[in-house]
Design goal:
Blueprint lengths: L4 H9 L7 E4 L6 H12 L2 E6 L16 H12 L8 E6 L10 H8 L4 E5 L3 H5 L11 E4 L5 H7 L3 H9 L2 H5 L2 H14 L3 H10 L2 H22 L5 H16 L7 H4 L5 H13 L3 E7 L10 E10 L2 H7 L4 H5 L9 H13 L6 E5 L6 E8 L2 E7 L8 H9 L5 E5 L4 E3 L2 E5 L3 H8 L1
Parallel strand pairs: 1-4, 1-5, 2-3, 3-4, 6-8, 10-11, 11-13
Antiparallel strand pairs: 6-7, 8-9, 9-10, 12-13
Helix pairs in contact: 1-2, 6-7, 9-15, 10-11, 11-15, 12-14
Amino acid sequence: MERFIMNDLVAWKNRSDRKPLVLLGARQVGKTYILKEFGRREYENVAYINCDNNALVSDLFASDYNIKRILFTMSAITGVEILPGKTLIIMDEVQELKRGLASLKYFCEDAAEYHVAVAGSLLGLALHEGESFPVGKVNMLNMFPMTFGEFLLAQGRKQMADLLASGQWGIAGGLRTMYVQSLREYYLVGGMPEAVAKFVQTNDANAVREIQNDILAAYEKDISKHAPADQTVRISQVWNSIPSQLAKENRKFIYGVVKKGARAKDYELAIQWLLDAGLVYKVNRVNTLGVPLKIHEDIAAFKLFMLDCGLLGAMSQTPPAMLLLPSRDNTGKGDFTENFVCSQMKSISGLPVFYYSKDNSQLELDFVIQAGVGVYPVEVKAEENLQSKSLKTTLSANPQMRGLRFSMSDYRDEERLVNVPLYGVREFVVKLM
């Protein structure tokens, strides 16, 4: 499967100041596959080592960080001759290997000519637990579930993906029916590579849902196995409350939905664990629309979205037909649509994403993004209902701003308000950057 992150990996390889690479991302988003595929395409050979419960490497860094010895041992274990610039060394599940992360400092300082990449399903947790992280000695990339554009490529619809990437909205509008059909399929399938592959192979919604349930079960197992014992119940409570949180009209995270009488201090660590594991996206509120948005952030008010809209459908047990068909009353599916938009925008490196509301006011914007020196208020519509009272009020009060409305309606540039089809969210925002 083609993944856009491949371009970032090639850019990393060609950097004159290249350091060992840390690839972050949730379980089963395709990290191992993409590193192996990157190695196959760009190098003469690949030295792949799985560090999880592997006795052959358990003591690799136990005695010292002598790089010559380490490379000799890696070559013996993998049966691959490790050559500078010609071999990609991959250490998978590196967080399971004692002093594995710390070793990257010595690869950087003593063997910069060797190309080293590491990944792990819970690597994000290790980075925040004081695991001797080599600050300043690594390059980092984040990997996410497949975007809608990548989903189109997996379906064999490269021309449709290319049209969106090129911003040819007029031509794309002529294929609207096909784009909308694929988008509704993406709502159901999501971007987890195994689920996408199963859908492409079988076109069977039940088979896809079975894989999604297996992935959710694996996440629950990770929580029970890897989370601090005093936090496992709270983490599961927060995780399982997300569908209910998003079903509310304004999507704001309410601790009382998790448990009656719950308080922020009781669940802060649980939420951070889910963030570090890559399972959720946190979108904080801003109460002022000014650049930079970050300085106006209110960390006490936020929304939590799932990393993948397909998994959201499985967790909420939403019947596939509800996701594949339009809403008859021109409403509904707002939670899935907003989760979809959030996931597409979060996959864009360096894009600040917030939502906006004022205390003691009903005015609220689904999202606010910052691209360069511009602030863009965003309204999300599940279908073609284009009423956007909050967005229009905001634009009236801020004449220098340009608003974005994502909906199922066709592309229209109305000077200060641009309607972007939901199937083109990511590609449009990328061009703003």
